[in-house]
Amino acid sequence: MSGSKMEGSSTPSVWRDPYEVLSVSRDSSDQEIKTAYRKLALKYHPDKNASNPEASELFKEVAYSYSILSDPEKRRQYDTVGFEVVSFLL
């Protein structure tokens, strides 16, 4: 595994820091992460952006980032090791 690409259709093709994707800091609370996710999910939802294929990819990236940061164990492992461990958990 190269560390820069992920396999599967439900994950983004390029790894980006989930904190950066959701525009939250590393010390953000669970509620701050959830609020940021909801805001971005609404913004990029495919039903609201049918004419913009890029929005669908951004929506997937936001959902993937939230799946890491919303799970305390995945978040802890990502903060400790990075994507190398998280990719095996998803």
Structure description:
It is built from five helices and no strands. It has 90 residues and is mainly alpha-helical. Helix 2 packs antiparallel against helix 3 and helix 4 runs antiparallel to helix 5 (83-89). The longest helix is centred in the C-terminal third of the chain and has 17 residues, at 53-69. It has a domain at 28-89: DnaJ domain (Helix Hairpins). The chain is globular and about 40 Å long.
Indicate the radius of gyration in whole angstroms.
Answer: 13 Å
* Large-scale geometry: globular
Give the helices and strands as they follow along the chain. Answer: HHHHH
Please report the distance between the alpha carbons of the first and last residues.
15 Å
- The CATH superfamily of one domain is known as DnaJ domain
Low-pLDDT parts are: 1-9
Q: Tell me the total number of β-strands.
A: 0
Provide the fold topology.
Elements: H1 18-22, H2 30-44, H3 53-69, H4 72-81, H5 83-89
Helix pairs in contact: 2-3, 4-5
Q: What is the gist of this entry?
A:
Its main location: membrane. 60% of the residues lie in helices and 0% in strands.
From the structure above, extract its key features:
single chain; 90 residues; mainly alpha; Helix Hairpins; Plant_DnaJ_domain; DnaJ_domain_CS; chaperone
